[in-house]
From TrEMBL:
Region Disordered: start-end pairs: 350-370
Ranges annotated as spanning the membrane: 29-46
Residues of the L-type lectin-like domain: 81-327
GO molecular function: D-mannose binding
One GO biological process term: endoplasmic reticulum to Golgi vesicle-mediated transport
Keyword check for Membrane: yes
Alphabetical keyword list: Endoplasmic reticulum, ER-Golgi transport, Golgi apparatus, Membrane, Signal, Transmembrane, Transmembrane helix, Transport
The protein's name in its UniProt record: L-type lectin-like domain-containing protein
Chief localization: endoplasmic reticulum
PROSITE patterns: L_LECTIN_LIKE (PS51328)
GO CC annotation terms, alphabetical: COPII-coated ER to Golgi transport vesicle; endoplasmic reticulum membrane; endoplasmic reticulum-Golgi intermediate compartment; Golgi membrane; TRAPP complex
Organism ancestry: Eukaryota, Fungi, Dikarya, Ascomycota, Saccharomycotina
Cellular compartment(s): Endoplasmic reticulum; Golgi apparatus; Membrane
Length: 538
């Protein structure tokens, strides 16, 4: 008799089938199955833990002001470096066919010599300034991940680093800037200025309690177009985002030391970093590192600029190289990972860091040893007033000989015809003096006539009670006329005239638009003459 169990007993479930199946397995198979299950559970657990750590690191990157690359366990992105050639500033700096900078526009008292390995942004003399700004801006995509490296040298005749000034700046602005009073350019800039300040103006009583920084000092100063926002009187203490002291950046005694600074910017992570290599030997030190950098202070399409200026205290600033790079992920997208960017640049994990926290603590710490009191600005002003007083007694003008002679010329010469009369008169007197020279002497001279001795005969100097007039004639008949004070010797005047003639040959005679029968003025030559003469007076 058949018995049907389908209605008389409960239906068997999946668990019952699984249990029955496992019971039928051998002991070895059961152990193998248990090992597989344990491995799967372990793998799932580890993966979840990694995701949690990754999320924590991402949160840390978005909120912390102090970033430590060693704490990041995010898988590095594959990153490629793209060199922005159109922003290069390096030898050869000038296109010899046009005598203009290859990628930059310039202004001020800059100096550059043929085949030189550097640009003299400002010479070591008072009241000088110079600036360079890129002809092209950086695109928004290229400026999203940026590295700028600058090789420069601050040097001069002064042995003490507390008696130099004023400093230099690296700019990231939304337009090219023009001449002004903030390290040589206008104060109402829109963008970011990185200032290397070499003189402590904030040594006055009203700022002494708050400004205990060591100088030279580097700071980052944002501006949104407000004129006069940067306060020179307190060295921008109240408007800086961050900064650090950079001792020994001044090359006293002209030892040839070239320093470097490196700027790293990642817009998506609001990350900004500034490193300094004082000796230029690859020993980078972190100066500024911010993870909450205000990205609106860094223009989307920035121009890069350099500027420098001197006041009553001086030093020279030479620029050797400026190189700019952008970065892309392997898929062509913008960089999103700070750790990956720093690794691709080659920032060492063990680099020493002068963190913002330590700088802040140093500012607010009481009981710091007071720095040795430097020569104050007011004392320098008194010395300058004393020198001006002596010049005023001697020449009747507080501006010395140049002021006296300038006022004399302004009163005497009313129009260009007066200049032509003086030039013609001096030319005639020079010709008469040449004719009075004995023929036998002239004959011997003509055999050995060279550009360096072409002025041996003829009028060379006219001396008055107040000034001297020196005349130098070249082999082509060009005459260089100098008006000087009485203490200038013929040898000194000849050397200066030689420098001016060399500049004339470089900037005028070699200019493709120059014609002997149709002379025109060249701006570069005028600027060079002003630089040479002003440098001699200093």
């Amino acid at each position: 008799m058949d018995i049907d169990y389908s209605h008389g007993s409960p239906k068997r479930g999946y668990f019952t089938y699984a249990k029955t199946g496992i019971n039928r397995l051998s002991k070895k198979v059961k152990l193998l199955l248990l090992g597989i299950i344990i491995f799967i559970l372990y793998w799932i657990f580890i993966r979840r833990a990694d995701k949690g750590l990754e999320k924590g690191n991402a949160l840390f990157q978005g909120t912390s002001n102090q970033f430590d690359p060693n704490q990041s366990s995010i898988t590095d992105e594959k990153i490629s470096r793209i060199h922005l050639n159109y922003l290069d500033l390096k030898k050869p700096f000038v296109d010899l066919s046009t005598l203009k900078f290859n990628n930059y526009v310039n202004g001020g008292n800059m100096q550059i010599e043929r085949d030189s390995d550097h640009v003299c942004l400002v010479p070591d003399r008072s009241s000088a300034l110079g600036y360079l700004f890129s002809k092209s801006f950086i695109s928004e995509s290229d400026s999203s991940a940026l590295e700028v490296e600058l090789d420069f040298r601050i040097h001069g005749h002064e042995k003490r680093s507390n008696l130099i000034g004023d400093g230099m700046a690296l700019w990231f602005t939304d337009s090219q800037l023009h001449q002004g009073d903030v390290f040589g350019v206008q104060s109402d800039y829109k963008g970011l200025g990185i200032f290397i300040d070499t003189y402590k103006n904030g040594d006055r009583k009203e700022y002494k309690s708050m400004n205990k920084r060591g100088f030279p000092y580097i700071s980052i100063q944002p501006n949104y177009g407000n004129a006069g926002q940067y306060n020179k009187d307190n060295d921008g203490y109240q408007t800086e985002l961050d900064g650090c002291s950079i001792h020994r950046v001044y090359d006293a005694g002209n030892q040839g030391k070239i320093s470097k600074i490196r700027v790293i910017f990642l817009r998506k992570k609001a990350y900004f970093r500034l490193d300094v290599d004082i000796n230029g030997d690859g020993s980078w030190q972190n100066c500024i590192q911010k993870m909450n950098f205000p990205v609106d202070a860094f223009p989307l399409k920035p121009y890069i600029g350099l500027s420098a200026e001197t006041g009553q205290l001086t030093h020279a600033v030479d620029i050797y190289r400026l190189q700019t790079s952008t970065f892309r992920a392997s898929n062509g997208e913008e960089i999103k990972n700070v750790h990956s960017l720093l690794n691709s640049i080659g920032v060492s994990k063990n680099q020493q860091s002068k963190s913002t926290q330590r700088v802040s603590e140093k500012r607010n710490k009481n009981g710091l040893r007071s720095m040795k009191r430097r020569r104050t600005f007011s004392r320098l002003q008194r010395q300058e007033k004393e020198l001006k007083r002596k010049d005023e007694e001697k020449y009747g003008s507080k501006y010395g000989f140049l002021g006296w002679f300038g006022s004399l010329v302004w009163k005497t010469l009313k129009n260009s015809n007066d200049y032509l009369v003086i030039a013609s008169t001096l030319h005639g007197v020079h010709a008469i003096a040449s004719k009075l020279t004995p023929e036998e002497a002239m004959g011997n001279y003509e055999k050995s006539r060279l550009p360096t001795n072409s002025n041996r005969f003829g009028l060379q100097c006219i001396t008055t009670a107040k000034f001297k007039i020196f005349i130098h004639q070249t082999t082509t008949g060009l005459k260089l006329i100098l008006f000087t004070s009485n203490d200038v010797s013929l040898i000194q005047a000849t050397q200066l005239q030689g420098q001016l003639y060399k500049s004339y040959a470089d900037y005028v005679l070699k200019n493709p638009f120059y014609r002997l029968d149709m002379p025109i003025r060249f701006r570069l030559f005028d600027d060079k003459v002003l630089t040479v003469v002003t440098g001699y007076n200093a």
